[in-house]
Specification:
Elements: H1 2-14, H2 16-37, H3 51-62, H4 64-67, E1 70-77, H5 85-98, E2 104-108, H6 110-152, H7 156-188, E3 201-208, H8 217-229, E4 235-239, H9 253-270, H10 273-296, H11 306-335, H12 340-367, H13 375-406, H14 413-422, H15 441-459, E5 467-468, H16 480-491, E6 500-505, H17 512-527, E7 532-540, E8 546-553, H18 560-570, E9 579-583, H19 585-619, H20 623-648, H21 653-656, E10 664-665, H22 668-696, H23 701-729, H24 738-768, H25 777-782, H26 791-796, H27 803-808
Parallel strand pairs: 5-10
Antiparallel strand pairs: 1-3, 1-4, 2-3, 6-8, 6-9, 7-8
Helix pairs in contact: 1-12, 1-13, 2-10, 2-13, 6-7, 7-17, 9-10, 9-23, 10-11, 10-13, 11-12, 11-13, 11-23, 12-13, 12-22, 15-20, 15-24, 19-20, 19-22, 20-22, 20-24, 22-23, 22-24, 23-24
Domain SSD: 273-405
Keywords: Cell membrane, Coiled coil, Membrane, Transmembrane, Transmembrane helix
InterPro entries: MMPL_dom (IPR004869), Mycobact_MmpL (IPR050545), SSD (IPR000731)
Amino acid sequence: MAEFLYRMGRWCARRAKNVIAAWVAILAVAAGAFVLFGGTLTTTVSIPDTPTEAVTERLQDAIPAAAGGSGTIVLSTENGEAFTPEQQARISDLVTRASEVDDVETAIDPFATEAERAAQAQAIADGRIQIETGLAELAAAQDQLDLAREQAGDTPEIAAQQAQLDAARDELDLQADALSRGEAMLGLAEGITMVAEDGSAAVVSIAFTEPQMEVAPETKAAVTDLFDDNPIDGVDVDYGSDMLDSVPSVFGIGEVVGLVVAAVALIVMLGTLIGAALPLLTALVGVGVGAMTIMSLSGVIDMTSVTPVLGLMLGLAVGIDYSLFIVNRHRRQLKEGYDLDESIALATGTSGNAVVFAGATVLIALAALNVTGIPFLGLMGTAGALCVAVAVLVAVTFIPALLSLAGMKILRRSERAALEAEHPEPGTAVEGKPAVKAMRTPSALVRVLVGIGALLLAAIPAMDLRLNLPDGSSEAHDTTQYQAYATIAERFGEGQNGPLLVVATLPGSPDEAAAQAAQVGIALSLGTQQGVVAVAPIGISDDRTVAAFQVLPESGPTSEATETLVHTLRGLDIQGVESIGVAGNASGNIDISDKLADALPVYLGVVVGLSLLILILVFRSIFVPVVATLGFVLSYFAALGGVVAIYQWGWLADVFGVDSPGPILNFLPTLLVGILFGLAMDYMLFLGSGMREAYAHGASARLAVVHGLRAGRSVVTAAAIIMIAVFGGFVFSHSAMIRPIGFALAFGVLVDAFLVRMLIIPALMHLFGEKVWWLPKWLDRLLPDVDVEGAALERRHPHVEPKETVAAH
């Protein structure tokens, strides 16, 4: 591989303009594909084979009208007073027009609903009076009949009158039973209101024909446009998060700031604007190709809005870092007296080889997300892997071409002047290196204790990790989603932001009376559960075997209490009911979180096992892979702890713009494993390979640690700062889904690079001395020789080749 990359680097350098033109053409093709075939991204997440999905499918077959998705529109008066009759009429008109939008099953008029509820209550009250009056009249008639029986005996006429009275009494009893059922159902549904008690806010519920995860964004947009295009004087309109597919901007001000910080770090390290510009340029080209290729597939693949953003994050970060490794190696070789073309080829064959290997570890870890069995997560991993693969290709082809055009200007003026004055022999440093001394053992022990202690301290909050999908409460306070959520929570109760859909299956073939009785019994059972505010029947199937109810929980959709209630309702054993299922947005998010949590240990095991195998292969050691993998586990949980502390507990909320702390994005822990593992292995390879090389060249185990650390720490430090800057730019994204991902990656890189790779592991390697490089002889014979840093290539190309030899290649 190293020899192949050496020759490819030389080929690209000599045909620089052709290579650059080829990448420009590839970028143009990707852009064209995106314009022609790009589809719509979605913010909804679904996983097949969950209890919620099973209930939804059952409901689609039994009661199609109740199986569709829903959306919420919240209207409130600007002055806090009750809606005027004119405002109510305008709202009702818009609701009627909304119900006529394609793929909208119905739009519920809040004022008509409340009027109907009041009419039902009045009808029940009137019915109760009528029944009581009828019973009183029957009692009087019975008294008269009894008196007549005493006087005349039990004649046929009296018997007939008694039969009529009994029939009338039975009819009244039936009416009373029906009235009691209606009264009970109305009482259970009392908490489900559409208009606030003071009349200043109202909720319009939109029911769609398609299930929640399949409602087209165009359908939602048609409804919201209707309200936006027809404003009502004195009325504010806000939309729930279920009405908006708010796709986050792929590139915003935060990302620009991150790139600026990365550019500053490059300028400080490389000392030239040209040197700093090359990694940035290659990263932008790579991420442009990768991200637009991914988005061009969104027309044929259901893709969440986070997928291309993740590709952008990774493409920028690894694109800059991988190019930096090659540029840094090239600059060092030029200062040692290498010929320009030879230096480009050798840098591509050595550092480029390490880049390919490091990129392969990231790519494998991301692609392994498909083993979780969760489609949207596997797609995210595949998309990220594609962007990493493009970044590697750009680094080993585009960078050599750009380095050829840059020539000696990749060095500072002072470095070029010193080079011309000294004329060093190729392979010798211009400046002498200070003598290397091994670190002191007490110092190494302190480093280990401090580093591990800091990581464990940071990881403590991870023990309280709660997973869910963000809802309107986690959005920025100036967004319409948050305003809708807050208005509902304040005026109607937290639970109305996440009602549950409960579906009961009745055995056999019940008649209408039995079905109605069962419906009331089920509603009463549901209403007695702790945490349930209200229950309302939604419908019953034509064969009367499936009944659906809306259950309003006391707490919000992402609360622990609601999660407990969902599991409680699913476990209910109601007499005469075959099974109870729960669906709805809140239930779906809980199921997704549970399935992701179940998949995480399996995936973490796969990644840890992969880590051990790769590192044993690279370092030919048992100790190094074990401590490197354990270090990754520590940095992973420390990163999760930081996320929990800030985004769930609310620490430093003002600094990080966390308006409403809450549960952590449910797929973040799994995603973090794949990405952080790959990046951690990058740093381990670039530091550890230098240590291994020094040890192989005869340095003692402890001196080899210092040699490798000194050789790689400057470039790894710069690379880590760049990663942190790029990921950190996403911390201030406007999307509640993107912010914690950006922070987790930035903080994970921070602790892994500076605490694990450059503090703890070198100190541990010093403490264990020669044992660090022990490997069983039988295993040593089995393992292939993986020359990651291209040391063998350097031995084959130790100096500048004669011009005629160069021309012969």
